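Z., the sequence and structure:
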Amino acid sequence: MSTEETTKAMTKPGSITLPVIPTSIELDAAWMARREQLLEGARKIEIVTTQWSFDEAEAALSRITKGLAELEKKRLALGKPFLDAGRAIKKVADEAGAPMEVEKARLKKVMTAYVEEVAAANQKALEEAAQAELEAQEKFAKEQAEAEAKRAKELADWQKAEDARIEAEETARLAAATADTPADEPNPFDDPVPAAAPVPVSVPIPPPAPIPQPVAPAPIKVVEAVVYRASSTVRKVWTFTITNASLVPRAFCTPDEKLIREAVNNGARAIDGIEIKEETAVASR
């Protein structure tokens, strides 16, 4: 059984046995001494003017490059126990938290469904109230128009009857005035003409009483349901899904430098919007 298998067998779920991790790290004195020698030799080369000085600089560059590579190996070796421990700890934490993450996602889902259900019910109630208010306003307007039309007809009928009364009264007055006027001089030997009867005066017709106006409907108040929360928040968020990358506007696209580098390395020398130029680079091994 390997060490890793033994470690797994000895540990219980949610626990891990970590390897021995050093409490201090120190680079060996020999490497540090070599570093100082390399730096001292490199600092002596201030300018390259001849092939000989170029060779000296190249040798110093190679020594420094190798020294850095050796340092990187040491760093990886020294850091491996810490990286392994970190990965192991993360794995244990991930495994322990996985069922909780599942329940967390499930609870969010059922809570979201309830919040959306309440919101939909509130929206439906608001829409129904708005429709009821509209219908009530339309009914009120219709009843108001009918009442005004009825009132107008009654006033017209009253005015017609009143005009007829006045006309009849005027006709009777004129007839009485004509009867009071003698056609010839009166004969004193004739019997006296009796006086005309007084013209009766008709009583004015009272106008119709006002028609009660319909009462305007009161606004409908909707009491919206509220989801009370103690430790959670509910808010509307906008999300997106790319359905066709070729239709996405250029402003939302980022150039892929990896693809550009591959194209340039493969011989591309002209790409719209990109300056491609040749530079001198010194590499060491």
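The chain has four helices and no strands. Helices lie at 3-10, 29-43, 51-179, 257-265.

Let me know what you think.
H.
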